[in-house]
């Protein structure tokens, strides 16, 4: 019984750290901004708090990086727009699966890496929010998501594996996972990603690869929920 209680407490602590980081990031949003809205469980808490500020009178518009994020934004009353209106975003706030010491990221655990990268690249500033478990000494402890075209994905997977990883076609409930863009995702497990920039460039050169989950040199600020406090890291 005590083990179960400890496990529950651990889950609640992780959520609390995410919530702290997320709510801190909303303090950086100013009236009139156009915001890139990332994806993932930590972003949920950011959207919830942002929705509260919108109800209090804050005027903003958001561009969501996934259908799920768009649904949350609608639920919380956050006005949305698209790239037909702004060509540059004031700020993007997103989560991450891994963050290294140089603030390079692995993203795409939820399958939205392409749209996330488009939104984040269009922002003047990218802020990453996460709990402390996402900080790593080097990228690659978890599998690297790579979005690929469905046609000939087997050949693409073979070429990716020659870069030194084991590739697994992502599935959900025994069915092939389809991204918001209608593509497949290969989860690629490397022993160690020594040079994220070089690996990203090598992957992008392969025919059939749409985008990688390596976000290199994009992050301006990381907000980490750590125990009972907030840690902020600048690039």
From TrEMBL:
Q: In which pathway does it act?
A: Carbohydrate degradation; pentose phosphate pathway; D-ribose 5-phosphate from D-ribulose 5-phosphate (non-oxidative stage): step 1/1
| Name of the molecule in the record | Ribose-5-phosphate isomerase A
What superkingdom does the record give? Answer: Bacteria
Which family does this protein fall into?
Belongs to the ribose 5-phosphate isomerase family.
Active-site residues, as the UniProt record annotates them:
116 (proton acceptor)
Q: What function does the entry list?
A: Catalyzes the reversible conversion of ribose-5-phosphate to ribulose 5-phosphate.
Binding positions for substrate? Answer: 39-42, 94-97, 107-110, 134
Arranged from A to Z, the UniProt key words for this protein are: Isomerase
Tell me a Gene Ontology molecular-function term this record carries: ribose-5-phosphate isomerase activity
Reactions mediated catalytically: aldehydo-D-ribose 5-phosphate = D-ribulose 5-phosphate
Q: Is Isomerase among the key words of this record? A: yes
Q: Which NCBIfam families match?
A: PRK00702.1, rpiA
The family database entries (SUPFAM superfamilies) matched by this protein are listed as: D-ribose-5-phosphate isomerase (RpiA), lid domain (SSF75445), NagB/RpiA/CoA transferase-like (SSF100950)
Its Enzyme Commission number(s) read 5.3.1.6
